[in-house]
Specification:
By secondary structure, the protein is mainly alpha-helical. It has a single domain, classed as Cytochrome c oxidase-like, subunit I domain (Cytochrome C Oxidase, Chain A, Up-down Bundle), CATH 1.20.210. The chain contains 16 helices and no strands. It is globular and about 70 Å long.
């Protein structure tokens, strides 16, 4: 145990990230069940208003800052050196420091539950002036700010580490244009992190100054501006959506190519589209602010429409990769297909609310809740499970059970759509976000009942996944080093890999070194 806690090896740190994020995932899932229990029927008193606010604040915070994004970072920690033939990350001690900043930051956020007055309760965005009011937002809110600042610093340090590793530590023959798509997506993500996270840290510092030292950055009474907080937050917040999705685009690409038994279709297009998404995401933050009247709606609407184009390129490439392929419907492949189906709905609803007139009607309703969850929950979360099933043999030398895995997928897919599809119709009927109860009008009671039942089905699917992990670990059936016939470099070392990843590096002559070795094209 001490060896794991003091390790600087990128594989150990990657696994620590994954285990920690899955722990926070369980906590966030429990909070989601509390939220859905409260909203199961109108006029419910299961949770009071303040308890509800704490639950949805911590749920959103955990899923965004402590689960989806850091899981991608943990996966990148584990895979990027393996995929480029490096013995470790460029700065191993900095890598370990980054993980512990993240872990301590996450615990600090949840530590607010032990504070007088409870945890943060101002939503995951912590909008001012609500988050500046001392009454009801005491130590728990301060711990939230400090904890997420630690997470932000951790993320920036990791981004620097990943960039330097990918650019300078590639093995001989591993040119940039031979790197797997997953590594390319991580490089784009790292660039995006360096652009997006410093403004967030600045906003949190200003908020803490306002709360405790008499600053007035966001107080219009003293010449401050609350809209400034929105600008700083969303200049981080919308790029953060792509920090959460770009690594998982890479996961889906690797899984689809492997289980279609075909090379990636449109490799160059996949790389260019990743950087186009990253670049455009910097210019769309204010589409979250259409209703403020403080931004240029036509400009930000146009850029928001435009970002759908490189995302569409990825769908074309995934379909092109599967086209006429010998598709193997493994659990990982099912989760990748589920990702595509769900993310498509998230993307289409995103294009809808990129139009200001439509956004005026949908803003702050459950239509937005549906859109966001289809993007991040139906998208990144499904790709997260695809990654776990795909790379679990490489990490631990054993394979997760396919039978239970497919049942997990079915329960998660059905449960997810039963939970979040009704939310779009709730929004169309006018149900507001961030409310702990609602009147018995229209179809709201029926739709919320279906949504709550769907969340229970999802919980069963997640529980079955953890049972699968436990059973597979107990059975510990060994698997070959490359059980899926994967094409990238990590499949040419042992499972799990040795301390410095490779005993002997093969000659790298193309984009698919494992397939080249298997075919005899490379020694």
């Amino acid at each position: 145990m001490i060896g794991w806690l003091t390790s600087t090896n990128h594989k150990n740190i990657g696994i620590l990230y994954i285990v920690t994020t899955m722990t926070f995932f369980v906590a966030a899932g429990a909070l989601a069940l509390l939220i859905r229990s409260q909203l199961a029927f109108p006029g419910n008193t299961f949770l009071g208003p303040h308890a509800f606010n704490q639950a949805f604040t911590l749920h959103g915070t955990a899923m965004i800052f402590l689960v989806i994004a850091p899981f991608g970072i943990g996966l990148a920690n584990y895979l990027v050196p393996l995929q480029i033939g490096a013995p470790d990350m460029a700065f191993p001690r900095l890598n370990a420091t980054s993980f512990w900043l993240f872990a301590v930051g996450g615990l600090t956020v949840f530590g607010g539950l032990l504070a007088y007055g409870g945890a943060a309760a101002t939503g995951w965005t912590a909008y001012v002036p609500l988050s500046e009011i001392a009454e009801g937002t005491g130590a728990g809110q301060d711990l939230w700010i400090v904890g997420l600042t630690l997470v932000a610093v951790s993320t920036v340090l990791t981004a620097i580490n990943l960039l330097v590793t990918a650019v300078l530590y590639r093995a001989p023959g591993m040119t940039m244009w031979r790197m797997p798509i997953f590594t390319w997506e991580v490089v784009a993500t790292a660039v995006l992190i360096l652009m997006a996270f410093p403004p967030l840290t600045a906003a949190f510092a200003m908020l803490l100054i306002d709360r405790h030292t008499g600053g007035h950055f966001f107080d219009p009474t003293y010449g401050g501006n609350p809209v400034l907080y929105q600008h700083l937050f969303w200049f981080f917040g919308h790029p953060e959506v792509y920090v959460m999705i770009l690594p998982f685009f890479g996961v889906v690409t690797e899984v689809v190519a492997t289980f279609s038994h075909k090379p990636v279709f449109g490799y160059v297009g996949m790389v260019i589209s990743a950087f186009a998404i990253a670049g455009l995401s910097i210019g769309v933050w204010a589409h979250h602010m259409f209703t403020t009247g403080a931004v240029s709606n036509p400009f930000f609407s146009a850029v928001s429409f435009l970002i759908a184009v490189p995302t569409g390129v990825k769908f074309v490439n995934w379909i092109g990769t599967m086209w006429k392929g010998a598709i193997e419907l493994s659990t990982a492949m099912l989760f990748a297909i589920g990702f595509m189906l769900n993310f498509l709905i998230g993307g289409i609803t995103g294009v809808m609310v990129a139009s200001p007139p439509l956004d005026y009607g949908a803003h702050d309703t459950y239509f937005i809740v549906q859109h966001f969850h289809y993007t991040i929950g139906g998208g990144s979360l499904f790709a997260l499970f695809a990654a776990l099933f795909f790379w679990f043999p490489k990490m631990f030398g054993i394979r997760l059970g396919e039978g239970m895995g497919k049942w997990s997928f079915a329960l998660l897919f059905v449960g997810f759509n039963a939970t979040f599809l009704p939310m779009g119709f709730m929004g169309l009927e006018g149900m507001a976000r961030r409310v702990y109860t609602y009147p018995d009008v229209g179809h709201l009671a029926l739709l919320n009942g279906i949504s709550t039942a769907g969340s229970v089905v999802m919980a069963v699917g997640v529980a079955l996944f953890f049972v699968n992990v436990l059973v597979s670990a107990l059975l510990a059936k060994p698997v070959p080093d490359n059980p899926w016939n994967g094409y990238s470099l990590e499949w040419l070392t042992s499972s799990p890999p040795p301390e410095f990843n490779f005993h002997t590096l093969p000659r790298i002559q193309g984009k698919r070194p494992a397939w080249d070795v298997a075919s005899g094209a490379a020694p």
